[in-house]
Specification:
Structural class of chain B: alpha+beta
Function (chain A): The glycine cleavage system catalyzes the degradation of glycine. The H protein shuttles the methylamine group of glycine from the P protein to the T protein.
Radius of gyration of chain A: 13 Å
Distance between the termini of chain A: 18 Å
Oligomer: heterodimer
Strand content of chain A: 35-45%
Order of helices and strands of chain B: HEEHEEHEEEHEEHEEEHEHHEEEEEE
Helix content of chain B: 10-25%
InterPro entries (chain A): 2-oxoA_DH_lipoyl-BS, Biotin_lipoyl, GCV_H, GCV_H/Fam206, GCV_H_sub, Single_hybrid_motif
Largest sheet of chain B: 6 strands, mixed
Number of strands of chain B: 19
Largest interface: A-B, 13 and 18 residues
Shape of chain A: globular
Strand order of the largest sheet of chain B: 10-11-12-9-3-13
Distance between the termini of chain B: 44 Å
Cofactor (chain A): (R)-lipoate
Order of helices and strands of chain A: EEEHEEEEEHHEH
Number of helices of chain A: 4
Number of strands of chain A: 9
Family (chain A): Belongs to the GcvH family.
Shape of chain B: globular
Strand content of chain B: 25-35%
Largest sheet of chain A: 6 strands, antiparallel
Helix content of chain A: 10-25%
Keywords (chain A): Lipoyl
Amino acid sequence: MKFTEEHEWLQDDDGVVTVGITDHAAEQLGDIVFVELPEVGTEVTKDEEVVVIESVKAASDILAPIDGEIVEVNEAIVDEPSKVNEDPMGDGWFFKVKPSDPGQMADYMDEAGYKSFIG
Amino acid sequence: MAELKETPLTQLHRELGAKMTGFAGYDMPLQFALGVMKEHQHTRAKAGLFDVSHMGQVIVRHASGYGGAAQALESLVPVDLMSLGEKRQRYGFFTNAEGGILDDLMLTNRGDHLFVVVNAACKDADIAHMKAGLPDCDVVEVTDRALLALQGPAAVEALAPIAGGCEIMKFLDTGIFTSDFGELWISRSGYTGEDGYEISVSADQAEAFARALLAHDAVEPIGLGARDSLRLEAGLCLYGQDIDTSTTPVEAGLTWAIQKSRRAEGKREAGFPGADVILDQISNGVPRCRVGLRPEGRAPMRQGTALFGSEDAETPIGQVTSGAFGPTIEAPMSMGYVAASHTAPDTQLFGEVRGKRMAVKVASMPFTPANFKR
């Protein structure tokens, strides 16, 4: 698993990368009440806004961590946004992307690096 | 930036693990361990304890007693204070010459004087306004007392063992109670739509008093985050957001707080700043009004969202002033101002959120029914 400075996690399973937010991010955001996901088939570019999440108090954007095509989204968190708070690193994932440049993954932190990043 | 002021409970908030935030110049708890959603739900189901010590507590006295103070203060507020019963409280607002709202406040008849509670961000201006406008009165800010709000259906059972007799008070009754924590100034009121109390307590007893309330099984500490969603569900205005000097009480839907005696042909008609504008608006209507709004999707429409009469209209017909997700109604909710032609309940509007027009309907407020003990 890899981690971005924007508190996203990326899990590569045979060339398809699942993206979500970290426990730390979910805790900082507070209760999530709304998630807007991209459509399957969308081509995304690294650092492009791809997901909108709203907590009780504020809206935030999630950026695409890598270039590629959205191949699956987690509809369950649209119906039940609280799943993101309950299990951000598991059932609360956001989308799966098929990377066009898997090499971009190498830029991100490993778990130890992320832990020291959030202190 | 100026250093944030603390309340007599700031240390307790930190000890309880609050996430703190700057609000109106004070270091205040945004949320506690439960988080905003559960704090909101807990207040509706049981009881929540809020620190509102940042608000201003002011005593207004006149040599002739309550009548003199009430008569004088009626020159600044469009509220009937002369007929306000002893130990009764009333909601009101200071207006300016244009009919705009300078602040909203609670006014209490305390027998021989008036007790006024004003918003934190406005309190210095309010006190200056009263001192200048009430030359015959003694206007004194109470600086040695904290103010707590205990809100929710279990508030009565938590407070009654401490302040015996508070259980027989009705909505907007007030009283002075002796207790183990000194003299408590209690009103059966609050700003959440729930039954509950606001309690002024001596600053040096505030922490012990708060701990005694928190020791009750039903009581949890609640932060400003849930206070905001609770008041919005209750359809109540936040000063600086839903009402300010650019909105009149009539536009804001607060005409109910202007009693008949202060309106046209009333016993003490007008005589407050902006009366010509406000009384004309009561008679002839206003171009825009504050309404409740229910977005049709799950996305909250927050403060500043432009409102349109159709999906492709170019000119907005209004704007959201407060918006959030309502934990009790389990849906997003907003309030805002729209053109008078678009204020009927169920009118279909569109709010522009992140460049997209999202459907929203005008809705009656409160979003949750009030639970006051009238």
